[in-house]
Amino acid sequence: MKDRRSELAANLAAVERRIADACAAAGRERSEVTLIVVTKTYPASDVWLLHELGVRQVAENRDQDAAPKAASCKDLSLIWHFVGQLQTNKVRSVASYADVVQSVDRIKLVSALSAAAVRAEREPVCLIQVALDAESGERGARGGVAPDGVEELAAAVAGSPGLRLGGLMTVAPLAGAFAGRPEAAFERLREISSRLRADHPAATMVSAGMSADLENAVAAGATHVRVGTAVLGVRPRLG
Ligand SMILES: *Cc1c(COP(=O)(O)O)cnc(C)c1O
User: Fold this and answer.
1) Atom of ligand 1 nearest to the CA of 211
2) Among 58, 79, 146, 206, which residue's beta carbon has the most beta carbons within 10 A?
3) Which pLDDT tens digit goes with each residue over 209-229?
4) Residue 232 CA, closest ligand 1 atom number
């Protein structure tokens, strides 16, 4: 466990350095960017170590893994983000531990989350997940609403009891016009975010960037980066 702690500490320091350098290069304050460590596929013991090392925000993408992990870490002061595709039959569980749901991408999910949040007496922050490669009216292969669907979903979240509209999330597309161009993708997200903030000034969160492209995200104004592999190591299985 001591070795794992040192490994995580070294990886965290390297990621911290990358974020600080990216902020400096972009003329931004380090405090403008929040690191979220994506702990999916890794055990709760790693979450404990990360907490000891100062991490306060973690993310998971599958409820069946996240629910028991959050339960075994309930004494730690952590902000839990849910970043995976979310089925409506899981919202009751997710609403019980998630402080932020980053993958809101359809109206049916908004109403289910709202009902679950009200029942659980919780008030999760919701981010609209944008699929930059999705055609109008369609959803992305890995979830997300097409850019022209953001406004309607944002209005639905803002008007739903128990939910707070936080902003936007995206994953750089692997296919389509933005494939291999994460910075262009994140610049597009920035435009969508400024349009959103015209109607919802408090919806300032822009969650973009992962291990491979966090510098591009910071350059394009991301407020939150979601980093898994670079902190925890290459995942043993797809997740
Ligand atoms: C797994 C995951 C990440 C982290 O990806 P890494 O490449 O391991 O940093 C970020 N966002 C989402 C939505 C993920 O599913």
Assistant:
1) 9
2) 206
3) 999 999 999 999 999 999 999
4) 8
Q: Sketch the domain layout of the chain as residue ranges.
A: 2-232
Q: Token pair of 190, please?
A: 């920035």
Contacts with 13 (C-beta within 8 Å, 6 or more apart), sequence order: none
Say if residues 150 and 110 touch (Cβ distance below 8 Å).
no
- Fold type of domain 2-232: TIM Barrel (3.20.20)
Would you tell me how many other CB atoms lie within 10 Å of the CB of residue 167? 24
Nearest atom in ligand 1 to 142's CA: 13
pTM of the shown model: 0.97
What are the pLDDT digits (tens) for 90-143?
999 999 999 999 999 999 999 999 999 999 999 999 999 999 999 998 889 899
Ligand 1: residue of 39, 55, 61 to mutate (most ligand atoms within 8 A of CB) is 61
Calculated CA dihedral for residues 135, 137, 141, 145, nearest 10 degrees: 110
